[in-house]
Design goal:
By secondary structure, the chain is α/β, with parallel strands linked by helices. The protein has 15 helices and 5 strands.
Length: 385
Amino acid sequence: MSSVYDDLVGQDHITTILKAAVEASRTGAQSQEMTHAWLFTGPPGSGRSSAAVAFAQALVCSKSGCGNCNECQSAKNGSHPDVEIIRTEGLSIKVEEVRELLTRVAWAPSMGGWRVVVMEDADRLTESAANALLKAIEEPGNRTVWLLCAPTLHDVLPTIRSRCRHIQLHTPSDAAVTQVLINRDGITPAMAEFAARVSQGHIGRAKYLALNESVRNNRSIIMHLPLQLNSLAAAFKAAQTLVDLATTSANSASEARDEKEIASLQEAYGKGATGRGMATGAAKAVKELEKEQKSRSTRMVRDSIDGALLDIATFYRDVMMVQAGSGEAIINTDMADAISAYALKHPSHSTISKMSAIMEARTNLSHNAAPLLTCEALMCSLAKA
């Protein structure tokens, strides 16, 4: 029997809690199982947003989350009238967006159950937006449920997280991810095992990696950058390569989508119709959309660079494992010989310093530091013996 929780890999402890909450919401009994605000946290790829969406489906489903009915399907794809799924594609969630959201969710549920709001990137709320959201969570509607998602508790204001029930997801095992890729996506066992291992339990990334040869090729280029850092000139070249790959990847993913969005908006304002042309306000609307698309593209580039830095971090992690005498535990087995040779040539204390430098660069990127300058500074640090 199918369920909305089927895609939550390795999270049985979470599904038990959510099922109990849905049951409590059905009976109306006074208990601690159901509350109006939830905070889902977990590392990237753990499925925190998937868990929140599954919970939203179960709350509006007459069968508590069958996964097949119209309510479940419409809630998942964002077309259910009582389910709002906020997927942030820009760098932040602004206070104007939150205020518009609060106006919409003030209405009573149209289909008799719950009005559910899923905010997939609550960590991207600006301070003013977070304060606006806090007021709504402090004074919730009778039938409104807030489901917030963030990497960690510390990524959300203390005043918000103190009013939410915390749900902690963990990274699924490589074996669990491998089985999902094989059974659900029809990927060969060897490719599934490789993708699960190098993605470090990130289910979405593992699938993307397994199904796209160009993505695997780009990853291979990135993983070999540490082996090329034998001078400052090489360091600057490596930084440019990394940023170029990230930018190209982001642009290829967004260009077709951007054109389609603009064409649809212009059509909505009357472009191509007979008569006077586009309605008043079309130019302003297109300009606003282009601004949003630019912000989305900027975030995609930064996210792509961040993913590349995590890949490079696995190289130095493997080097450290070899230096510690645990070479059998390396992630990048396809680079085992190169990693072993590197480990022999470099002291272990420098490996730790390089991993720290990568984490610092990731932090700087999250604070909107210039990508190329950040990567150049990082590669220069990694080039040191």
